[in-house]
Write a structure and sequence with these properties.
heterodimer, A: 267 residues, Purple Acid Phosphatase, chain A, domain 2, 11 strands, B: 190 residues, alpha+beta, Porin, 8-stranded antiparallel beta barrel, 3 helices
Chain lengths: 267, 190
């Protein structure tokens, strides 16, 4: 009798004690959310947007869930719903590319009142991270339009594939850029072409392609963990590197026409 | 490595089925005390293993092979796990029932596959990543009920990577978030 009670008690404890009861492997692929980028883009496009854009950028949130939680509640209270159009994440959602880390990220960002679009970072490609990213967020290379602006997201983590000239996908980018469009272009990718982790065979052509396209304004990156903003040597095109959220920093961007106003912010 | 385990398991089955009268045979001596199958616990969706028990019954060593089917991974994950358990609290209630109230375990899991590394591939500088993706360390705490030749057990477990995430973000990550459950069935051979 005592043993039966013991077994019953064990099962009650078992199924009430853990938040996510069963984990098969640190390398498993079973994210708790799907198609987050597509859902965020749909939400952005439903909003009444003016001619200008106002958005925030966070980056490298891996192992910084406290800071991410603080940022979400800070931005929720500081900005009115119609004040910020969306938030961009410049990559490195996870440290080990592990399923549980993607889930921990989702636990925090689902509390944000702003749609969040995330690009893939080098850490997010470890283990089975690339598959998890594709399930949880969508395609690694994506584009979407908001008002008069066009965003192009890319996987630029060349070192992760031993600089095999496949990342970034130049052909895909080329096909995007030949589409005739009079919209201002903003790029989003984790590793900047100036980083030693960008494929050295492709950095020159990549820079040339993104800078020389008509109406191209800005390329947003993460990875180096520190804020920087540089102008192209050839024109007014700008390269922005967003700081890690671990430093309790983010970037606020306002764009009107082709005029950009970029501020490093602290919280 | 996993083929060696398969062969070991096959030999063990062979020993069980063969009516071997020679009790001093080498097979009898290397035969594990129990075999087990387990669900979840970061060592595979399902894992099967052999278990050795020390003469004083307080220590156990387990070697297991686990799979995560393709449905929950990119490609099927094959891994092997070595686990040591210490059982400080154990009681026998009658001749056939025994409860290991507390057993504390530590395991090392290695996943096979080109996508996972133990040593950093050459295209990274030294120290680029401070952790291997193929290897994981885990801690477990659980209990086991043994009746006759059969035992059922559960473990609460966590891993090194989960602990690091918890330590670095202890406000946002709940303590109970880092723990997960496994349970299993043992069959005692000797």
């Amino acid at each position: 009798m005592k043993l039966h009670l013991y077994i019953l008690l064990c099962f009650i404890i078992l199924f009430t004690s853990c938040k996510r009861n069963f984990q098969y492997s640190v390398l498993e692929v079973k994210p708790i959310a799907k198609d987050l980028n597509a859902r965020a883009i749909a939400e952005i496009q439903q909003r009444q947007l003016s001619d200008s854009l106002h958005f925030l950028i966070i980056s490298d949130t891996q192992v910084s869930y406290d800071e991410l939680q603080d940022f979400v509640s800070y931005s929720n209270s500081k900005y009115a719903s119609n004040e910020i159009d969306f938030i961009l994440h410049a990559g490195d959602i996870t440290d080990y590319g592990a399923n549980f880390e993607y889930n921990l990220y989702y636990d925090e960002v689902k509390k944000s009142k702003f749609p969040i679009i995330a690009t893939i970072g080098n850490h997010d490609m470890l283990g089975n991270g690339r598959t998890i990213y594709q399930k949880m967020f969508g395609e690694e290379n994506f584009d979407f339009e908001v008002g008069n602006y066009r965003f192009i997201g890319l996987n630029t983590n060349g070192r992760e594939v031993n600089f095999n000239q496949e990342l970034p996908n130049i052909d895909w980018l080329h096909n995007q850029l030949i589409l005739n469009s009079d919209k201002n272009i903003i790029y989003l990718s984790h590793v900047s072409p100036f980083s030693s982790d960008f494929d050295p065979h492709l950095s020159e052509i990549f820079q040339h392609m993104i800078e020389s396209t008509p109406y191209a304004l800005l390329s947003i990156h993460g990875h180096s963990h520190s804020f920087s903003l540089e102008k192209s040597e050839n024109n007014n095109f700008q390269y922005l590197v967003a700081p890690t959220i671990n430093k309790r920093q983010y970037v606020e961007v306002k764009i009107a026409g082709d005029k950009t106003e970029i501020k490093q912010k602290f919280f | 490595m996993r083929y060696i385990l398969f062969i070991t398991l096959i030999f063990n089955c062979h020993i069980l089925s063969a009516n071997n009268s020679d009790s001093t045979s080498i097979w009898k001596r290397i035969m594990p005390n129990s075999v087990n199958i387990q669900f979840a616990g970061n060592t595979g969706m399902f894992s099967a293993g052999v278990n050795y028990i020390s003469p004083n019954k307080h220590w156990e060593g387990n070697f297991s092979y686990g799979v995560v089917p393709q449905k929950y991974s990119d490609r099927t994950i094959h891994s092997t796990t070595i686990k040591a358990r210490y059982i400080p609290l154990m009681r026998t209630y009658n001749r056939s029932a025994e409860v290991k109230w507390v057993n504390v375990g530590m395991w090392f899991n290695y996943a096979y596959g080109e996508k996972y590394f133990y040593k950093l591939p050459v295209y990274y500088d030294a120290g680029y990543y401070y952790f291997p993706t193929a290897a994981n360390l885990g801690l477990t705490i659980g209990s086991e009920l043994k009746r006759g030749k059969w035992g059922i057990y559960y473990d609460f477990g966590t891993t090194d990577k989960r602990v690091i995430n918890f330590v670095k973000s202890s406000r946002a990550v709940d303590f109970h978030e880092i723990w997960n459950i496994s349970f299993g069935l043992s069959y005692y051979i000797k």
